[in-house]
Specification:
Structural class: mainly alpha
CATH superfamily of the largest domain: Cytochrome C biogenesis protein
Order of helices and strands: HHHHHH
Low-confidence stretches: none
Shape: rod-shaped
CATH architecture of the largest domain: Orthogonal Bundle
Largest sheet: none
Helix content: over 70%
Number of strands: 0
Number of helices: 6
CATH topology of the largest domain: Helicase, Ruva Protein, domain 3
Distance between the termini: 120 Å
Strand content: under 5%
Number of domains: 2
């Protein structure tokens, strides 16, 4: 009886897995596979990963494309299930603004800090302390 039920379920489910992607859907499938990170591999997209979970993730991408989901919906699905980490190109939103803008702020701050230090060094080199002025005057008087 169990074998009959399993055979029946496979028979019913086989048309879902037998569906093929048309060329446009195949392009979307490949592009999404390159944009979604394998959660087991280190920074490897699911398109090139041979891990079992990457194969499962590619199957989910295919199923969602066949179901009519948009690319955005598919990315959102994976982000909800695995977190933003799964997206190789994370979305810009309220939470990630700081991450996107931090390099710019650090660069501006670094340039400002470097310019300030260079200016201070020049000022320190150009001005003499009172003691140095007295020494310089003494040397000049000796030379005269």
């Amino acid at each position: 009886m169990k074998k009959l039920i399993i055979a029946f379920l496979i028979f019913i489910a086989s048309p879902v897995f037998a569906q093929e992607l048309n060329p446009k859907q195949e392009e979307r499938y490949n592009a999404l596979g390159r944009e979604i990170r394998c959660v087991v591999c280190q920074s490897e997209p699911v398109a090139t990963s041979s891990a079992k979970i990457a194969i499962d993730m590619r199957d989910v991408i295919k199923e969602r494309i066949l179901a009519g989901d948009s690319d955005t919906q598919i990315r959102k699905y994976f982000a909800e299930h695995y977190g933003e980490y799964v997206l190789l190109r994370p979305q810009v939103n309220k939470v990630t603004y700081l991450l996107w803008l931090a390099p710019i702020f650090l660069l501006v701050f670094g340039v400002f800090f470097a310019m300030k230090n260079v200016t201070n060094k020049k000022l320190e080199e150009e001005t003499l302390s009172d003691e140095e002025l007295k020494q310089a005057e003494a040397i000049i008087k000796e030379l005269e």
